[in-house]
Each structure stands twice: as structure tokens, then as C-alpha cells.
Amino acid sequence: MSGRLDELQARLLDGDRRALSRVLSWVENGDARGREMLRRLYPRSGRARIIGLTGSPGAGKSTVTNEFAKVCRARGLSVGIVAVDPSSPYTQGAILGDRVRMAELHADRGVFIRSLASRGALGGLSAATQDVVHVLDAYGKDVVLIETVGAGQDEVEIASTAQTTVLVNTPNMGDDVQTLKAGIMEIADVLAVNKADLPGVDRMVSALKALLSLAPDRDWQPPITPLVATKSEGVEQLVDACEAHHAHLVETGRLADAESARARQQIVALARGRVLANLLNEIGEERLSQLSTAVASRSTDPHSAAEAWVGGE
Questions:
Q1: How many domains in the chain?
Q2: What is the pTM of this model?
């Protein structure tokens, strides 16, 4: 087995896309071979710029991601795209398939697109997303773009995965109301206003500026970039804004702090998952079902049931 993994690792680091695809499949499915490859490849990661694109459904994130990648390629950068799609409730597989919407990038050998199922993750990211990003980073991608599922206000996990988070808004789709609810605004490093050729864009930009003026002082003021992704208009400026944010992180020393925070978040998330898996394996679904029935019948409360489950009672 070790010899086969040695060969696969060598092929991956030599740019073999089939080797990359196989490793990513292992990683996404929680295969022990994927974990071993991650252990081997992780020291080679840490060089890519990781940019997350999030926002409400219908904001045009896939088109923005597609055009963003094209600008990066024109600048001589290789690109990895992690497109997180909604999951099938039956198979847990991806439903929409952003690969379809990025078909024109498929022929470019400098771009690698991987669709991941969210698998019910409330923040729009599956547990495997960060691992997939690490592998693409080690593979040698200069930029890794993460397009999230579009879960709305809950979609804040991207800030703990990406170095730069782009919030994509659109006029006349209720986004001005969503923005004023503020939640997701706190994670935005760059604000993109897509479909800027539609009426209401000035109102959208004004609402964003007003909200930023009320926010606590930050050493980075998120720029607002209008664009029309379907016409490739304003995308260069969006890429420039992301590069400026990355330069700011490097100049202020915040990049290292952010990496440490991301590492901490992933460790905690993985540990939480292992603890839950151990509980299910050691105590079993039957005991959990018994406790669930007791809570549903009001013979005990959820906190007491959780304590009993963790304590093996």
C-alpha cells in the first residue's frame, strides 16, 4: 500500500490530474488513504491564495467565479475551484453541479474544478472542504476559489476557510434588506455588486456604504465593486480588490494570525466530528433512539439526555 501511495503522491506533485482526482475522492469520502495523503501533502501547502465567494442564491456567484478564474488565468496564475453545491437528501451527492455552469473552463489545463456536496452543513461548507483546499494548494494552484452553496445568513463558515471573503450582492432581489440585517456583512473583505446594469444598483451601493459607515472601525475598509459578470465587466477590479486585501494581510502581519485561527477552527471541527462518531460507535444508535423517545415524551429534557448519552448511562 505504501508503495502505491508513494507513486500516487509523486504523480500528483508532478501535475497528474487523474492522481489529483483520485486523492480528492478519497479525501471527500473520508477514506483512510485520503487521510494518509493529506498527512503527506500538508507540508507542501500554504502557498495558494484562498478566496471565498458567498452570497444569496441567485446573486450570480457561479458566473462571478467563472469570470474571476478567467482573469487570474490571463494574469498567468493557475486556479483551483471548489464549488460547493446543495446535497441530495437521498445520496448526499451534489445536485446542481457548478461544473455545468463553468463548462468553458474545462479545456484549460491551468484550471481544476471540483464540485463538493454541502452534505447538510448549515454554513454551506462540507467538512471536507478545507481538506480539498489543502490538496489543491499542495498540487501547486496559485489561487483556490471557493464558491459556497448560497445558504444566506447562516453562510459565515467561509470566513474561517478563506483568506479573502467576497460577498456577492445584487440589486432588486431583497439583498439590500438582507444586507441591513448585517449578519453576513461582518465576514466580508470585499463587496461585489453583481448585475450592476439593473435598476436599483445605486440604491444597493448606497445601502452598503451606509452600513459600512455604521460598522466598528477596522484596519481594512471593504471596497465596493460593481460588476456585470455576464459581460465580463468590472471583474478585473474585483480581482484587484482581492489582491489589495491579500497585500494588506501580508503588510500588517495578519495573514499569519488568520492562518492560525483557521487551523484552530479546523482542529476543533474535526475533533467535534470524531467525538460524535465515537459516541455513535461506542454507545450506539439504539441508546440514542431511547433517549430521543424519552425527550419526545417529556420524561426527560434534552440537556439531561445529552449528559446521559455522553456519560454512557
A1: 3
A2: 0.86
